[in-house]
Design brief:
By secondary structure, the protein is mostly helical. The chain contains 13 helices and 9 strands. Helix 11 crosses helix 12 and helix 12 runs antiparallel to helix 13. The longest helix has 22 residues.
C-alpha cells in the first residue's frame, strides 16, 4: 500500500493524472488493427500531450492512466460468408439384370458373299483353360480345351507325336516339314508349289512373344538352311536343330491357333469361289458340318493337311484337292454321324483323284494308306 501511494505521489509531481479503478475493471484494449507498439507510444496534439501507457500489474494494480478517447478507424468490411450448400447424398443401389440362358444358334452361310478384308494380326491373349476363342467369319467360339485336343490330334496325324519329327523332311519331297502341322519350308530359290507356310507360322509365334534364335529369324526370310533330306538328317543332332525342335514342342497350342486362324480366314471365301451352280451345295455342307460335333476338327485339320483349295487352276490337270473341292464333292447329309462319314468319303475321293492325275512316275499312290488313316479320324468326334 505504501508503494502504491509513493508511485501516486511521483506521478502527481510529474503532472500525470491517475484514475482509480476497481480490480474488476479491465484496461481498454487497443483497436483492432493497431499494433502494440502504437498503443504505448505518446501522442501529441497541438501543445497538449497525453502519455498513454499501461501500468504493469506488478506495479500498483488497481490504477491505470486516463487515456483520451482513441480515434476510431473504420473497420474493414468483411464479405458475408458464402452459404454452405447441402448436398443430399443419395446412395445408388445397383441391381444386376437377370442372366439369360445361352441359346446356341445354327450357323448359316449365305450363298452370296461380300468381299472380305482380314483384320490386322493381334497378339493372342494368355491361354486360360476353358476360355472361349472367338473365331468370327461364321465359326463358333472354341474352348481352349477343344483347341488343345485339335492341336494334339494334328500333332499325331503329322508327326506321330514325336518331338524329333517336328523338324522333318518326307521322302520324295523337295521341302522341309516343320512343327505340329508339318508346315512347308522351302530352301532358298526353290519354287514353293504347295505354299511356304512355315515362315508365316514364325511370324505368328513372334507376335505372341516367342523368342526365336537369330539363325531362325534370318532363315525365315532367306529359306530353309538345308537343301535336301540328307542334309537335314546330317544336322539332326546339332544344337541348332534340337533348339528349334524344343521351341516347336513348347508352342503346340500357338501352332494350333495358327491353323484355326488360317481356316477362319478361308471361310468367307469358300462359297464365293465356288461356281454358281455349286454354291448352294457348298453352303449346305458347311452348315451341316458346323452343327455336327467333330465337324470343326475335320474342317480345320483338312485345311492344314491339303489346304483351302481356293486356287481353282492349281493341282494336277487343273483339279485341286483342297477343302473347297471336298465340299463340292460331298453329298448332302444330315448333321451328326452321317455328315462326318459324308465328309470323309468325299475327302478320299478327292485324294484318289489327285493320285490319278499325278504325273507318271511320281509314285503318289504310296501315300494313300497314310492319308486314309488320317481321313478316318474325321469319322468320330475327338474324345
Amino acid at each position: 500500500m505504501i508503494k502504491q501511494r509513493t508511485w501516486a505521489v511521483l506521478f502527481a509531481l510529474a503532472g500525470v493524472q491517475l484514475t482509480a479503478c476497481s480490480p474488476s475493471q479491465t484496461i481498454p484494449e487497443a483497436e483492432p488493427g493497431s499494433s502494440p507498439s502504437n498503443a504505448n507510444q505518446a501522442k501529441t496534439s497541438g501543445s497538449h500531450s497525453t502519455a498513454v501507457a499501461q501500468v504493469d500489474a506488478g506495479f500498483g494494480s488497481g490504477y491505470h492512466f486516463a487515456n483520451p478517447q482513441p480515434q476510431h478507424q473504420p473497420r474493414p468490411v468483411r464479405p458475408a460468408p458464402r452459404p454452405q450448400h447441402q448436398y443430399a447424398h443419395q446412395q445408388q443401389v445397383y441391381v444386376p439384370e437377370p442372366e439369360q440362358a445361352y441359346q446356341p444358334q445354327a450357323y448359316e452361310y449365305e450363298t452370296q458373299m461380300v468381299g472380305y478384308m482380314p483384320a490386322p494380326p493381334v497378339a493372342m491373349p494368355p491361354m486360360q483353360v476353358n476360355q472361349p476363342i472367338e473365331l468370327g467369319s461364321g465359326m463358333p467360339a472354341l474352348q481352349w480345351s477343344e483347341l488343345r485336343k485339335i492341336g494334339e490330334q494334328i500333332f499325331q496325324n503329322e508327326s506321330g507325336g514325336s518331338v524329333s519329327n517336328l523338324v522333318h523332311w518326307n521322302d520324295g519331297e523337295n521341302f522341309a516339314s516343320m512343327g505340329i502341322g508339318h508346315f512347308t519350308w522351302y530352301p532358298t530359290g526353290r519354287a514353293a508349289r504347295f505354299g511356304n507356310t512355315f515362315p508365316q507360322l514364325l511370324d505368328h509365334l513372334e507376335r505372341n512373344g516367342v523368342q526365336l534364335p537369330a539363325w531362325v529369324r534370318q532363315a525365315r526370310h532367306t529359306g530353309a538352311p538345308w537343301r535336301s533330306k540328307a542334309e537335314l538328317m546330317r544336322a539332326k543332332n546339332t544344337a541348332q536343330v534340337k533348339e528349334l525342335q524344343t521351341i516347336l514342342f513348347q508352342t503346340r497350342e500357338l501352332q494350333a491357333q495358327y491353323i484355326v486362324d488360317r481356316t477362319r480366314l478361308a471361310m468367307p471365301k469358300l462359297v464365293r469361289t465356288s461356281p454358281a451352280h455349286l454354291r448352294p451345295l457348298v453352303a449346305q455342307n458347311l452348315n451341316v458340318l458346323a452343327n455336327t460335333p467333330g465337324g470343326w476338327y475335320a474342317i480345320i485339320d483338312y485345311v492344314n493337311f491339303k489346304g483351302e483349295g481356293l486356287n481353282r487352276s492349281g493341282g494336277y490337270r487343273g483339279q485341286n484337292w483342297g477343302l473347297l473341292q471336298v465340299l463340292e464333292t460331298m453329298r448332302p447329309a444330315q448333321p451328326g454321324q452321317d455328315a462326318l462319314n459324308a465328309f470323309a468319303d468325299a475327302a478320299m475321293q478327292v485324294l484318289q483323284r489327285r493320285v490319278n492325275n499325278a504325273p507318271n512316275g511320281s509314285g503318289e499312290e504310296r501315300w494313300l494308306a497314310g492319308w486314309s488313316r488320317r481321313i478316318n479320324t474325321y469319322r468320330a468326334p475327338l474324345a
